[in-house]
TrEMBL record:
It comes from the Bacteria. This is DoxX family protein. It is found in: Membrane. The lineage of its organism: Bacteria, Bacillati, Actinomycetota, Actinomycetes, Kitasatosporales. GO terms for cellular component: membrane. Pfam families: DoxX_2. Its main location: membrane. Keywords: Membrane, Transmembrane, Transmembrane helix. It comes from Streptomyces sporangiiformans.
Amino acid sequence: MNLALWIGAGLLAAVALIGGISKTFVPKEKLAVVHGGGWTEDVGAGFVKTLGVLELLAAVGLILPAAVDIAPVLAPVTAVCWVLLMVGAMVTHGRLGESKFVVLNLIYLALAAFVAWGRFGPESFTG
C-alpha cells in the first residue's frame, strides 16, 4: 500500500509539474490554441499563471515534505487541495463540453483522493 501511495503521489506530482510549467511559463495565447486550452480565453493571464504556480507548489508538496520528513502531513493536505483543483477543472471543462478532459480530471481527482485517504489513514507518516 505504501508503494502504491508513493506511485500515486509521484504520478500526480508529474502531472502537476508539467501543467504548472506550461501555465506559468507559456503565454496564455499559446495555451489557448492547444487542445483543452480553450478555457484560458475566458480568464486573465494572471489567473492562468496563478494556477500554474499552485500546480508547481502541488508538485513539490506531494513529494518533498514526506521524502525529507519535514512536516510530512503536508503531502496528504496537498492531495486534498489537488482534489479541489480537479473539481474546478472538471466544472470548467464540463462547461466547454470537453468530456475527455472531465474524465481525465476525474481520474486525477480519484488518485489524489486515494493518496489523501491513504496518507491520512492507514499509511500515515505520523503513525
